Amino acid sequence: MTVELKPHDTETKPRYVLVNDEIHHVSDYHGLPIKDRPEAICPVCNERVIMRLGEIREDHFAHYPDSDCALKNPETAIHFNAKMHIVRILQNINKIYRRDIWQCCKKKHRILWVANWDDVQYEYRYKDLIPDITILKNGQVVACIEIVVTHAVDEIKANKYTAYNIPWIELTSIKALEWNGRRYLFENIVENKCFSCLSKLGTLHNIRTGKTYQVLSIR
Question: Does pLDDT of 51 surpass 60?
Answer without folding.
Answer: yes
